[in-house]
Amino acid sequence: MYKHIEDFSTTWRYETAATMRTLEMLTDDSLGQQITSDHRTLGRLAWHLVQTLHEMPSRTGLSFEGPGEDMSVPASAAEIAAVYKRTSQALLDAVQTSWKDENLLIMSDMYGDQWPNGLTLDILVKHEIHHRGQMTVLMRQAGLRVPDLYGPTKEQWAEYGAPAPVI
Predict the structure, then answer these.
(1) Which of 36, 42, 54, 151 could form a disulfide with 138, with the two C-beta atoms 3.0–4.6 Å apart?
(2) 19 and 132 in contact (C-beta within 8 Å)?
(3) Residues 28 and 41 sit within 8 Å (Cβ to Cβ)
(4) C-alpha span between 48 and 131 (Å, rounded)
(5) Measured distance CA(84)–CA(16) in Å, rounded
(6) Distances in Å between the alpha carbon of 128 and those of 11, 20, 123, 133?
(7) Separation in Å, CA 132 to CA 18, 82, 152
């Protein structure tokens, strides 16, 4: 749980940069990739990330521009990335200008439970990391290169002339 706006801001900048690297590697053709027919497509998963950036914090009363829950998945990977970039920055701006550290302790209704706003922001970050991980699996299945997120990728190890570590 975040207790300081600056701690959230630092983490948010790092994680949204990683998500942007992921979204920028998507292609329009890859958006239909899915693990099975009864799971989300890569495009739907990416758009879910974008929509949640607005949906979850809005439950705290935080006000900023973002896509509505009823908006359809764009057919363009570039559009998904562009809306993500705008919405993630709008969220950060709203937190930094509308809240003080004390606001992170205020309880808000979150899906029938009461969560401190600092917990909501923490769960939002973890939600993004979780789905970004799912996206990288689908990206591999679609034949796309995945970005470095928390260390070099298999391809980067090869480019460095080193064998990829076996985990």
Answers:
(1) 42
(2) yes
(3) no
(4) 9
(5) 9
(6) 12, 11, 8, 9
(7) 9, 16, 16
Asked if residues 104 and 60 have their Cβ atoms less than 8 Å apart, the reply is: no
CB atoms within 10 A of CB 138: 24
**Cβ-based neighbour number of residue 38 at 10 Å:** 6
pTM beyond 0.85: yes
pLDDT of residue 167: 63
- Identity at 108, one-letter amino acid code: S
Taking only the tens place, the pLDDT of each residue in 82-97 is 999 999 999 999 999 9
Check: CB of residue 39 under 8 Å from CB of residue 137: no
Which domains, and CATH codes, for the chain? 5-159 (1.20.120.450)
Strands (E) across 2-157 are located at 107-110, 113-116
Total Cβ atoms within 10 A of residue 159: 10
Structure token pair of residue 98: 């509308």
Q: How far apart are CA 33 and CA 55, in angstroms?
A: 25
Tokens read off for 131: 């789905």
Q: Mind listing the pLDDT tens digit for each residue in 96-140?
A: 999 999 999 999 999 999 999 999 999 999 999 999 999 999 999
Q: What is the mean pLDDT of residues 25-53?
A: 96
